[in-house]
Amino acid sequence: MPLPVRTARDMVYPLDFPVPAAVACFLILWAASRAGSIFGKRFEDVHDDFSIILTATLTLLGLILGFAFSMAVNRYDQRKLCEEQEANAIGTEYLRTELLPHPDGEEVRATLRDYLAHRIQFYEARTRERARQISAATAGLHSRLWTGVRVPSQAQPDAVRALVVSGMNDVLNTQGYTQAAWWNRIPPAAWGLMAVIAVCASILLGLYLRVRNNPVLLMVLPAIVSISFFLIADIDSPRGGLIHVKPQNLISVAESLGRRVGTW
What we know:
Elements: H1 18-38, H2 47-96, H3 102-124, H4 128-155, H5 159-183, H6 188-211, H7 220-236, H8 248-261
């Protein structure tokens, strides 16, 4: 009996919900700081050693958070670039389809306008279920678009129709590149490493501040780290959170095509 295959879109990332994740992170780190402060009295004679270890741990945590932020920003920029490439490919192919015979060309252009609307909806969808529905509808449009350029090209193969086929291939490929970019997230192992180091730093901070008799400051590090985690997770999440890639280029192409057909 074949084993079920787990696809990328079936995976659930807890950090798709940055606000609850940040709150949970703050509570865990605050509890770690409190736990460290409880046992602080046992280590009063090694205060200088804790100061060195705490400084080194906080430095390491800061470096890893910086690398994670850079990874998230790079992935966000990649999603923006894919949206721009999709818009350019669709707009160019729409113009190339005017080289096809009238019945075939008009049908392909109508399908392209429908496809463009679905791509805009894909970027604006905020739930996985809605995104899956749009992706299923887009898959059906793929076959219609390819058939629309394949049939006239086979009937009369020439350089003009080859150009149209090449443009349609770019349209379909850019959609695949976009999907790959949206699946490209910060690895869970990286999040786990950051969480372990943050917990260790919070425990050491609790030990240190307990020795220094400053328990009020126990919430400072958990709050700062939680805010950092929230920002990184928000940028890394394509649909959750507050920062999203807006389909500005696709909307601009839709408005341009709408003016060409007189619907805007």
